[in-house]
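S.,

Sequence below, as promised.
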Amino acid sequence: MAELQASGGAGGGPSAGPSMPSPAGAGGASGEDQAQQAAQEDERRRAVMSQILSPEARERRQSIALSAPLRLSAHVCSRPNEISSAVLTRELVSVPAVSRIALVKPDRARAIEQLLMRMAQSGQLRGRVSEDQLIDVLDQMPDTAPTSHPARSTSSPSPLAGVQAVLFDQFGTLTNWQDSVVRSLADAAEVGDAGSSGAGGGEDSQVDWLAFAQRWRDGYMVRTREIAAGKPGPGNIDSLHLEILDTLLEQDEYKALRKAWSPDRRKDLCQLWHRLDAWPDTKPGLEQLRAVDPPVFLATLSNGTLRLLIDIARHNSLPLDAHFSGDLLQSYKPNPAMYTRACDLLGFDKAARQRGEVALCASHIDDLRAAAKQGLRTIYIRRATEDVNVPHGGDAVRSKSDGGEVDVVIRKIGEIAGWVRR
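The prediction came back faster than expected:
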């Protein structure tokens, strides 16, 4: 896996940005429709993986004689708990080509495919994944990747028992910044193609907007951490986004945009971060939390400005009680003051934090690590766009009950209600 990450780049090659299949089975669909959707999703998944994996990594094409050892599954079957489906073919004359990933447990196979898709989407993979690289991934991926809380007896206390306030990170946790920004940039390019002033004519429509958005976001992650550590920089996220955009446009590949986008145009583009769409589970999940009795405070804790957080909440009709922003708290996460000041303003002092009365939900493990140091309980939510380049993030995160470092691991916001409900 280290080899894969080391070979990563900003993009290029056949795997520079395949679209990830979306979940199948929309609510209310008939069984036949769901089956058809599942088949379509499976076909899309296969198509994406065919772009990511080299032919030898996808399958072994050689036939296996009856008396020959099962070399096809020798790597995978070296562990007792990973008996592959190929073992069942020992009495057959030959074995057709079989996907290497299909030889491991289904849950683990899905986790491996999702990891490879995220790495491809973010531009980490340069060229197709070789067989040796895939074996490296198979070796290092955990056997299981829990997606929600494990079953617990009614006598076991919830890790979120006593929580009276849940703070939420914004970018990536409540909102799908990637799709929102990419779509907005592409729409802006289409407007430019139509002849609107301030755009790049037809040239900007040829830009890889996914890569552009990711670099913009990466610059934000670097600069906010620098400023949180004491380096000089804008305390207003709009100004910071503009600074990063200006720096990004200095790259040669964006010279057409640099010429086309005036200072006013660039400021307008920074406002698209105020109109991010929420993940589909965000609003219903918050509404589930809103129904918990006794009630729980729900607030955002974000590096964004107060105006940005309000704009996003209004845009998505999110039921939140308060917003704690970078400009309000005078810093950026992971500065400890961001967590302690937000808690203090809600009326939760150090003693209350130590009692576990405040939790932070975020899709970034480093954010949760910083919060835990200030006494907050921690809820990690897996999001496809987040912690992609973080070895200890994503599917590697485990709850304390599974030997990890966070209190709870979830996939949907609504799962929190089950943990905090008494």
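The chain has 17 helices and eight strands.

Coffee later?
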